[in-house]
Design a protein that fits this description.
TIM Barrel; 32% helix; 417 residues; single chain; alpha/beta; three-stranded antiparallel β-sheet; eight-stranded parallel β-sheet; globular
Length: 417
Amino acid sequence: MKIDDFRLKLGKKEFVPIVIGGMGVNISTTELALEAARLGGIGHISDALVPTVVDQRFHTHFVMNKLKRYQSNIGNRDKSKVHFDLEELAKAQRLYVSKTMEAKQGEGDIFINCMEKLTMNDPPGTLRTRLIAAMDAGIDGITLSAGLNLRSLELVQDHPRFHDVKIGIIVSSVRALKIFLRRASRVRRLPDYIIVEGPLAGGHLGFGVKDWHRYDLKEIVREVLIFLKAEDLKIPVIPAGGVFTGTDGADFLQMGASALQVATRFTVTKESGLPDDVKQKYLEAEEQDVVVNSVSPTGYPMRMLKQTPALSATTKPNCEALGYILDSQGNCAYAKAYYDAYEKKPGGEIIVKDKICLCLQMKTYRCWTCGHNVYRLKDTTRRLSDGSYQLLTAEHVFRDYQFSADHQIQLPTPRTP
């Protein structure tokens, strides 16, 4: 069996059952999402650091404007007064989504990944703003991620597209799904799809630093399918995390899943937002280079390459310009660690080892998060005569997932460096 032997049904539409995950910051670019939609699948963009992404893409000045408003607070460890202008945040989100949707072709859809853990010194206010702006701008679907999202549906239940836009949730256990569904029942709005993310996924994980390896995606998916059947809930289930070949995907579809979410193999495509030199680092990676640590100030474990530059970098917090991880009191675990170290050693060298400045390091592509199978990427392409690896197109990877069988991976046509 091949992935192409199946179709994902969401509402009245059918899709090739391949979903490209929403990798931030702007790794899942507009261009990558557009290719997925053109090919009949679903592509995600991510709203992680959207004002920053929009400034880079459209030469706007959202980040600079925020910095100017709070210039006088630079150096102050108290960030409680540093807030996003919600009108500007909405404007940035609408611009990003509308420009993406205007360019869409094909029979597929484009979703946006919205992270609850982007607390932005006003968790409900900034999340509601991002969700509403995405719906206003015509997004096909919204995937709620990075948290239980217990309030997310309530925040937008009065929006005219609340029952029109497709809404999904990412969970890593039946327990988390049950909690979300109980809350969703209050607003009579069940999710249109459920993404079940396993322990081999990239970036932030729903598992512990020390026990992630004890869990298995197939077993979690099986438990979710059994639960949904027992509750007579016909909600499509989409496994994610470690689905590396088309055969991996077909196996899940045969056991009752409706589609697959994939990401790792698309990080090294030409459409990916990673700089080309970083793509080569991913292609060079070995299995022993992949680590799960607790350096993220969000509190979630995070998988990355151990060579990631962010792990050896100490930078002054720039919450006045960025500040996407500030909680409702203006606190951030990295900023606290930095200022604690500074006060112990004023004027001396400041070293923060246990946390990273996630905003700045993600913005500058110095936080090399990855899926566990990143070390297998070299087997999906060709080594060039100069020692580098040939980058792939998103279409090549998508088609390989769609049509391959027997765990075979189609290598790209050879080219010169």
